[in-house]
Amino acid sequence: MCGIIAVIHADPKSIHAASEVHEALYLLQHRGQDAAGIVSGDHRGRFHQCKGNGMASRVFQDGARVADLPGFMGLGHLRYPTAGSSANSEAQPFYVNSPYGISMSHNGNLINAPKLREHLDKEAHRHINTESDSELMLNIFANELNETGKARINPNDCFAALERMYKRCVGGWACVAMLAGFGLIGFRDPYGIRPLVLGSKPSECGTGKDYMMASESVALVQCGYRDFQDILPGQAVFIEKGQEPVFAQVHPLLKYTPDIFEYVYFARPDSVIDGIDVDESRRNMGFTLAETIKKQLGPEKLAEIDVVMPIPETSITSAICVAEALDKPYVQGFVKNRYIFRTFIMPSQKLRQKGVRAKLNPMPKKFRDKNVLLVDDSIVRGTTSREIVLMTREAGAKKVYFASCAPPITYAHIYGIDLASSSELIAHHRDSTAIAKHIGADDVIYQNLDDLVRACASLSPRNPAEQKFEVGVFCGKYVTPVDDGYFEHLEQIRGESKKKKVMEKAREAVMHGVADQKQIRMAAKGVEVDQHGNVIPADNGSPDWGPLNRVSLANGNGNATADASGRPSMDDIRVSSSQDISLHNLNDHP
Ligand SMILES: O=P(O)(O)OC[C@H]1O[C@H](OP(=O)(O)OP(=O)(O)O)[C@H](O)[C@@H]1O
Ligand SMILES: NC(=O)CC[C@H](N)C(=O)O
Ligand SMILES: [Mg+2]
């Protein structure tokens, strides 16, 4: 799950769009911790970028780098990879110089990436520099835009290009893009799987409005934007410099099916997504879960429960409601270390395991001789639940029951939440008795899928009875068609053990100078290689220079002036030189 942001100021001379994007990045940090980036666009049609691996504060050196990013518009991205690797070179926003200069931030996952790659290679003849599906999407868009053959384009040309792009891409996406010197675009997949909301505020220059788009409304609220409007499934919006937004349905709205996992885990509780208040949905989840707990445990076991405890942080809202409905004391027994971040979205299993203990510390007096009902929002790999049950017992609890606000997660997530490959999911081949045994609990209680859907749908501003959600992870029925063989492909690219083995072998081969091209490519995702081809030891915080057999970054040196209309053309857009990009991109290089 990634976070995306876009800002455009009414005043084309404004140089502060990036500082708003930067502010918003911190509000969406929970959506991606692996990489962060901003690209700004100034009135001369130049882009300026700063991106790299790490959280926003590291990449932007607590804001010091934002001064390098002048412009009246900007894009931001927070990455939690679902495709490709965690390499620096896959940090977003992505950029292509042709046509017109385009930068793009993508939240989601394309499930027909190999087909798109082939099309770009064989038919469009566009070079793809990484394994990222987002780079593919940007290039598909760029190629369709190029089909206009015009030196100057208008919003309708963009919509037409998007229409063609939507016919090629399959999966979930919410994207924001910037055309150099021209304006901003936002668009969302035909099912509205991934979220995108637009807001506005009066411009500081006194005339017109500034606009922001973001994955979650909390970013808009905190930056002073109002008049929210969710971008509809299959809808695109174009905000040209100094103009009002123009909307177009670039693909028929197929079904309005937002991803239910946004409400379960991903989004902040103070966000409203597609008109559904996240905190309220979690309260509802707590109340309905309590009913299932009553039924499953029965009066005797229920009477034994002394306290209801949340597993911070996401489940707190629901746990309060479970306690209220069961008429049991709500007790916070775990203290969360606020300097350790979300463990589930950490990149490796070892880190996730370590993360749980470092993040949550039990206060023994809250547990001693108690029968405890633990409440979490979800059980994915079981890393948290297993460790927590153990900690609960170590802290002196007698019986430990474990309740999950989400139903068993039995299938892979394919639209932008890297839940795990199905073989890693604890519920994939286990029933609740086996799961309880596996995590060491006396019993495990899961929310029913219908109850979960009702908890969210009842808050929908559309017809609640007809509100549907993307729930493939719980039942294997996905909203888009999925090609035969996709899951095998997924298993292959995501299966952690396999990835690890291949990676280790490749690293070793590179270290010993016996790697073939494929191994060099593979190793370059985990082992940094400098511009001379020398291997830099991993985890030293140094930037990614890109794999050896690929062009590292774009070169060029056109002129910087925009024409009278301010619209981009091949001539008036300066493509950043590799030196410029080095300066901005390679934060930590000595
Ligand atoms: O079964 P698992 O694989 O452990 O994944 C599920 C857990 O991961 C998440 O917590 P996380 O620490 O990421 O975030 P939170 O602080 O928002 O709860 C989620 O809230 C569950 O607690
Ligand atoms: N979580 C996401 O939305 C990821 C976006 C994109 N698929 C990537 O891996 O960078
Ligand atoms: Mg959690």
Automatic annotation (TrEMBL):
Tagged with keyword Metal-binding: yes
The coenzyme or cofactor needed here is: Mg(2+)
Q: Where is this region: Disordered?
A: 533-590
Catalyses: 5-phospho-beta-D-ribosylamine + L-glutamate + diphosphate = 5-phospho-alpha-D-ribose 1-diphosphate + L-glutamine + H2O
Question: Which stretches make up the Glutamine amidotransferase type-2 domain?
Answer: 2-242
| One of the protein's GO biological processes | 'de novo' IMP biosynthetic process
According to its UniProt record, which residues of this chain constitute the active site?
Answer: 2 (nucleophile)
Which N-terminal stretch is annotated as signal sequence? none
Named from the GO MF annotations, one term is: metal ion binding
**Entry EC number(s):** 2.4.2.14
**UniProt-annotated binding residues for Mg(2+):** 314, 376-377
Q: Which Pfam families match?
A: GATase_6
Q: How is the cofactor bound?
A: Binds 1 Mg(2+) ion per subunit.
Please state the pathway this protein functions in, per its UniProt record: Purine metabolism; IMP biosynthesis via de novo pathway; N(1)-(5-phospho-D-ribosyl)glycinamide from 5-phospho-alpha-D-ribose 1-diphosphate: step 1/2
Per its UniProt record, what SUPFAM superfamilies does this chain match? N-terminal nucleophile aminohydrolases (Ntn hydrolases), PRTase-like
What is the top EC class of this enzyme, as a single word?
transferase
Is this entry keyworded Metal-binding?
Answer: yes
Kindly state which keywords UniProt assigns to this record, in alphabetical order. Glutamine amidotransferase, Glycosyltransferase, Magnesium, Metal-binding, Purine biosynthesis, Transferase
Stretches with biased composition (Polar residues): 552-562, 575-590
- Similarity comment text for this entry: In the C-terminal section; belongs to the purine/pyrimidine phosphoribosyltransferase family.
Name recorded for this polypeptide: Amidophosphoribosyltransferase
The organism encoding this protein is Bimuria novae-zelandiae CBS 107.79
